[in-house]
Amino acid sequence: MTATRRERRVALARSIALELLVVVSLFLAYRFGRLLVGHSSAEALDHASELIGWEHAVGLPSELGLQQLMLSSETVTRLANIYYATVHFPLTALFLVWLFVRSRDDYRRIRTSMALLTAMALMVHAAFPLAPARMLHGFGFVDTAAMYGPNVYSSAPNADSVANQFAAMPSLHFGWAVVVAMGIIRVSRSRWRWLWIAHPMITLLVIVATGNHYWTDAAVAGVLLIGAEYAVRTWTRVGGRGIRVVRRSLTPVAVTPSTRPSLVAPTFGGHVVLAGQVRRLPARRGPPARAGPAEEAAYAA
Fold it and tell me: What is the DSSP letter of 288?
């Protein structure tokens, strides 16, 4: 193995290790950040009741009606529970690995967008605790995961050491699903890539029908994702403009020799540059002019 190939492999290994460290750190920060946010169940349930009333007032479809439709088939209900419990994290992780291998630049942008979305979601969780619909038994909702399994949550929400069950808004299940679909459609060149639109659509139906989220949770996640995308694009555009400004500053220069020149070299547009006092030349149109008598005399000297 040549030294160049060895250096490339070492650089790739370092890059992979760094990205794994970043992703795992962000995941752990989010996980423990949710657990550190403590809220009473009464506050979260009150917010849930108010949200359902608001959704009904603006004419949104009934989450309860969708859940009852799903419960008419035990098979569909079990499949929805499995989808909710097993697809979210593994598919997102596989997507990030695929994107890292396929397009490093797109990976960095999408990873940053996802990190911003998750950070903003954590702030909303802290400011607005919200109980999921499956806890609102007085409204007719049921916990489909507790009925048929698999169940990823503890039966005692306040004692759950794995997840904050009062963090229904926004839905990162939906937000991350949109990121996955958007990233694959953006990067892949397969004509089948548009089928990935089905992933966030199925995720939306699953999280609502199983009683884990409301329509509004998905809408808020979408708004936060738009904000994260805008921030990343703005940052990228500002960085690119800074590079262009530096390049634009490299305008043609000439030298007014105040002392005997020690260096002579051609520069932009065919002008002759002499070591000495530098001044800017105005932008010229048309073909570059030949050096004048003064420059030729200085060059001959």
Answer: P
Element counts in the chain: helices (H) and strands (E):
11, 4
Rg (CA), the chain: 30
For residues 98 and 11, is the Cβ–Cβ distance under 8 A?
A: no
What would the pLDDT profile of 162-213 be if each residue is shown by its tens digit? 567 888 999 999 999 999 999 999 999 999 999 999 999 999 999 999 999 9
Separation between Cα atoms, residue 153 and residue 173, nearest integer Å: 15
Tell me if 2 sits within 8 A of 132, measured CB to CB. Answer: no
pTM over 0.90, yes/no: no
Q: Which of 24-38, 144-158, 262-276 has the lowest mean pLDDT?
A: 262-276
- Residue type (1 letter), 165: Q
- How far lies 262's CA from each of 256, 257, 274, 299, in Å? 13, 10, 8, 10
From residue 267, alpha-carbon distances to 246, 250, 273, 275, 284 in Å are: 18, 11, 6, 12, 14
Spatial separation of the C-alpha atoms in residues 107 and 95, rounded to whole Å: 10
| Termini Cα distance of the chain | 54
What the block records as the tokens of 253 is: 């220069």
Model pLDDT for residues 96-152, shown as the tens digit of each residue: 999 998 998 899 899 999 999 988 998 898 889 999 999 998 999 999 999 998 988
CB of 274 within 8 A of CB of 255?
A: yes
Q: Which sequence spans correspond to the domains of the chain? A: 11-245, 252-300
In one letter, which amino acid is 107? Answer: Y
Q: Which two tokens stand for residue 102?
A: 């396929």
Amino acid found at 126: A
User: In this structure, what token pair is assigned to residue 75?
Assistant: 């098979």
